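Hi,

Apologies if this is the wrong queue. I'm a grad student, and the batch job for ComA operon protein 2 from Hoyosella subflava produced an output file that my downstream script rejects. I'm not sure whether the problem is my script or the file. Here is the sequence I used:
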Amino acid sequence: MTPSGEEITETAVTDPEFYERLEEVLSRGMGEYLGLRFTEITPDSVRAHWRIRPDMHQPAGLVHGGVYCAVVETVASLAGSAWLGDRGHVVGVNNNTDFLRAVREGTLHAHAIPMHRGRLQQLWLVNITDDQHKLIARGHVRLQNVTDAARLGAS
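Support response: The file is valid. Your script probably expects a header line. Output copied below for reference.
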């Protein structure tokens, strides 16, 4: 179950602590703001959906590009974490998101798949589509695999 009470229909993650960490992350900050609902979490694929709200709009009434960037980074990071497992943590080091089609309202769907998974880094492709399966945005996120998380942010 996700923090929203929805059931994840497919998962390959067997570590119960992974879901505890997931619930902690999604119950605060960006995960809470976006309102992402995950329907698949495996080391090879993550799927999520969310409803557009007016507070996600830019001044012209369209979904703000930062929303797409945040969703892309969130689902890619979760996918990378599922793949890396207990070997460490992932941090985003590059997010390149293209906005392809304007949206004002409705439900959008994100799907992350791996392009490269190596010892030091991963590269994930995330497609965002609408209910008619039209491509709305597409992003690539490069993740750094970190084995010593205590050193992150230290000077």
